[in-house]
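Supplementary Text 2. Reproducibility record for the structural model of the 264-residue chain.

All settings were left at their defaults, and a single model was retained for analysis rather than an ensemble. We include the record here because the model underlies the residue-level annotations in Supplementary Table 4.
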Amino acid sequence: MELRFITSKDNPLVKEYIKLRDNKKYRSSEHKFVLEGARLTLDAAKSGVSLDGIFITEDALEKYFDDIELLKESSGGKIYLITDKLSGILEDTKTSQGIFSVAPVLDKNLSVGKIKSGSRFAVLDGLQDPGNVGTILRVADAVGLDGVFLCNCCDVYNPKTIRSTMGSIFRVPFIDDLSFPEAAQLLQDCGVTLYAAVVDQDAESIRETIFCGSSCVVIGNEGNGLSEEDVALCRKRITIRMKGSTESLNAATAAAITLWEMTK
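Retained model, structure tokens:
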């Protein structure tokens, strides 16, 4: 297969990739984001994402040659061969594997109008760490959540967020354009019970909580947790009782424990 060879960092396609990687406003205006690494690019292709272009080094082309037909189909043949030097310019990590791609923003395929009894959801309210948001989406995938609401969180298309999902971004339905009050009202109108995860010894222990019917756990900001106003919009307050001198857990860790308890 003959590929177009790109060597210059001033190539328009390369410049666009870098701008999408580094600039949230540009990602939002162009409705695109970037994927770095073989796993993310292949997961996107296997999930049916129509990639806008793929950059690949000669070494990576040889290593992943068995997947080239899939990548060609996913990108409409827009695969560009790049030098190792140019790969170093594109990469945001040291483990890029010589493959980079551009993808259109994902369809928000979380349909609350089709919520069935026993559905399980999570709301992330004001989380600002890309690693936490990405990890929680990965946990949501692992425990089989029906969807995640991202309310006033960091950009879900931030490269660090995308990497932290380890491909789960393509499998977990999500909505990222609602405020918490809007999401809470939408879920409650569909008969979903909201459980506010708080650090409060007076709240119900997660070990004693019985999640009946359709349920949703609400996780708050890393530093401040949930506001009193947002807690008031939830039906119940739940907490993880801790021993020793530990007062609280990382947001992603707390979410993993709570979501596991809700879905076990």
